[in-house]
Amino acid sequence: RAPQFDTPDRRYIGFFSANARQGIRWPVSGRGAMQIGDASGANWRPSRMQIQRVGGPLRPVGVEPVVRQATGPPARTYVAAVQSGPDRTTVAYIDADGRLQIFVGRGRTWEHLPVPLFEPLVPGAPLALAADGRTRLPLVYTVGWNGELLEVFEGSRVRDVAPALRFIPQTVLQPIDRGAALDLFALDETGVIWNINPAPGGRPQAIESRGERYDAGIPLFVVPGAADQLFLVDRGGALVNYIRDAAGWLGPQLIDQGFA
Description:
The structure is a single chain. The protein is mainly β. The protein is built from no helices and 20 strands. Strand 19 (about 240-245) and strand 20 (about 250-255) form a beta hairpin. The N and C termini lie far apart (about 50 Å).
């Protein structure tokens, strides 16, 4: 393992081959070309070989989590919280090194939970949480470096819950957690609003397919109820909402105008 060969954007982690006298950078995403460099960690070039991960993300046996010096704090850091028990709250954020930080609190007492996640996430990125009855750690949802909508479960296992979709790294996610079912809401890289069921086999549903109306990844707010409602501001500065009934999502309905 050669941390000095890691790329500044954290998309590749570095190794050194003593036999080949070469530096090797492996894509954290687990797919695409490797990068090959000389023994000094210079003259990097893409490999001819293309890789595709099978199963979970890269996590070599016996390799400690990557420790990097922060290149500066993100422009903003998003925080998410979830009620994880009758008297327990869980809060999480992604720090400047891309590490997932999770705390659980009871009253005024807070405990930092260890997270064995190897691959770095996008520093400060928005995230959404859902309680996971199998472990003290919550289910965590965020957008990865390559635009995947990622689920982190058991603090170490990662999967792409919407492989057909791509999002910008600062996409805001809104969850509705009904216990037996979880829905995520977000705008993809084209500005389409999606209702995503992250369970295995779940299919995303487009709420508004006219991507030209909204900017990618913008904030939205969802209110659960007998008829779920979704609120956001479009490119023209109009506050609108959508309502879900038995037939599906209806809207947009204009509420007010003059927003930036």
